[in-house]
């Protein structure tokens, strides 16, 4: 069994904390302040970078880019008020 859920839960909570307790210089706060357009743009950029890294068969780059994508997706989810449990439930129905 993977531990990804543990870190995703932690990341989700960190993003919520940044909203509730902004920290100067926080990239997460920067994204939240800029809004959905900036966050969505970053999600798109990171998704493209995942594809390029995978196409180039660069495992370490792919891991790094997927991590960036998951981070930006998490910021988007929090900004949209979507919980990880909602994503879990949707994926579960598709199984």
The gist of it:
The chain is mainly alpha-helical and 95 residues long.
Structural class: mainly alpha
CATH superfamily membership: MazG-like
**Assembly status:** single chain
Order of helices and strands: HHHHH
Overview of the structural elements:
The protein has one domain (4-94): MazG-like (Helix Hairpins, Orthogonal Bundle). Helix 1 (4-20) packs across helix 4 (59-80) and helix 3 (36-55) packs antiparallel against helix 4 (59-80). The mean pLDDT is 97. By secondary structure, it is mostly helical. The protein contains 5 helices and no strands.
Keywords:
95 residues; mainly alpha; Helix Hairpins; 5 helices; globular
Explain the layout of strands and helices.
Elements: H1 4-20, H2 27-34, H3 36-55, H4 59-80, H5 84-94
